[in-house]
Amino acid sequence: MTTIGIFGAAGRMGRAIAQAATDAGLGIAGGTDRDPAGEIAPGIAMTADPLALAEASAVLIDFSVPGALSAHLDACIAARKPVLIGTTGLEAVHHALIDEAAVHIAVLQTGNTSLGVNLLAALVEQAAAGLGDDWDIEIVEMHHRHKVDAPSGTALLLGEAAARGRGIALAQHSERGRDGITGARAKGAIGFAALRGGSVAGDHQVIFAAEGERIEIGHRAENRTIFARGAVKAARWLVGQPAGRYDMKGVLGL
Ligand SMILES: NC(=O)C1=CN([C@@H]2O[C@H](COP(=O)(O)OP(=O)(O)OC[C@H]3O[C@@H](n4cnc5c(N)ncnc54)[C@H](OP(=O)(O)O)[C@@H]3O)[C@@H](O)[C@H]2O)C=CC1
Ligand SMILES: O=C(O)C1=N[C@H](C(=O)O)C[C@H](O)C1
């Protein structure tokens, strides 16, 4: 039986993943959290030691915080175990750590584990490729009041898809956090706007706006179960994969 270890196990996603893994008939080796006192569910042991967890698991799932990424990757490399990174708010330094880890082990990093969002990303890439840069691209997301990072990992994933479709680098063409006298929109820019409130699990809308017409495509997550199910599916897929960096396309057959 595949046994999963969960970094950030006491969090909203950690708990949802424990439930999804149990529903899928998988074993749970245990979990870590910032304060690992106690259990996340009956029979699921918490530890403060990422390496001990990695050694006890067939595959690891990390939905915690960017600051813990380095220690989690080190543990997975030392134990030679594959890992899924679902944590968002990652910066260039974190992506460099993931690239380095992927030389030694299989690492899947994604801002969204759901089938719907990954299919949306494929559609966005196709639309951006077909429409050309006189169509302005804006990405709007809304999440619950507890979310700490913006734009969401999913908004950035969709932005990357749009940039790929256009054959440009997102980093050089994104407009984020507009406020005050911003000046006119740059031609070819990909804009981001983030809303926060209530209990919204995750809404994303991609708007293609031209003179006189607009195309809007989007996705609404009704709860976290879709992310948790996707994470468990990806973890199963990762077991036995050779070292390398992966995203959800291989898992979902997109
Ligand atoms: N890729 C995807 O599909 C999805 C990604 N996410 C992302 O997953 C992450 C977690 O989301 P969510 O569960 O809602 O957030 P939570 O804040 O509920 O969970 C994060 C957990 O990680 C814990 N933590 C903090 N530091 C460490 C550490 N050093 N080691 C282990 N655990 C630690 C936190 O503890 P404490 O609270 O005590 O600090 C908390 O329990 C976010 O980045 C979110 O954006 C969310 C949904 C889907
Ligand atoms: O923090 C969340 O809740 C979510 N985070 C991910 C993101 O940043 O895109 C995925 C999902 O939208 C929920």
Annotate the secondary structure layout.
Elements: E1 3-7, H1 12-23, E2 27-32, E3 46-47, H2 50-56, E4 59-62, H3 69-79, E5 83-85, H4 92-101, E6 106-109, H5 115-131, E7 136-143, H6 153-166, H7 170-173, E8 174-175, E9 190-196, E10 202-210, E11 213-221, H8 225-238, E12 244-246, H9 248-252
Parallel strand pairs: 1-2, 1-4, 2-3, 4-5, 5-6, 6-12, 7-9, 8-9
Antiparallel strand pairs: 7-10, 10-11
Bound molecules: NADPH dihydro-nicotinamide-adenine-dinucleotide phosphate (NDP) and the ligand O=C(O)C1=N[C@H](C(=O)O)C[C@H](O)C1.
The ligand O=C(O)C1=N[C@H](C(=O)O)C[C@H](O)C1 is lined by residues 88, 111-112, 143, 147, 152-154, 202.
* Shape type: elongated
Number of helices: 9
What's the name of the CATH homologous superfamily of the largest domain?
NAD(P)-binding Rossmann-like Domain
Q: How do the SSEs run, as a string of H and E?
A: EHEEHEHEHEHEHHEEEEHEH
Mean pLDDT figure: 96
Which ligands, by name, code or SMILES, are bound? NADPH dihydro-nicotinamide-adenine-dinucleotide phosphate, the ligand O=C(O)C1=N[C@H](C(=O)O)C[C@H](O)C1
Strand neighbour order, sheet with most strands: 3-2-1-4-5-6-12
Total beta-strand segments: 12
Which sheet architecture does the biggest sheet show? 7 strands, parallel
From the N-terminal CA to the C-terminal CA, the straight-line distance is 27 Å
Catalytic activity: (S)-2,3,4,5-tetrahydrodipicolinate + NAD(+) + H2O = (2S,4S)-4-hydroxy-2,3,4,5-tetrahydrodipicolinate + NADH + H(+); (S)-2,3,4,5-tetrahydrodipicolinate + NADP(+) + H2O = (2S,4S)-4-hydroxy-2,3,4,5-tetrahydrodipicolinate + NADPH + H(+)
Domain Dihydrodipicolinate reductase C-terminal: 116-252
Protein name: 4-hydroxy-tetrahydrodipicolinate reductase
EC number: 1.17.1.8
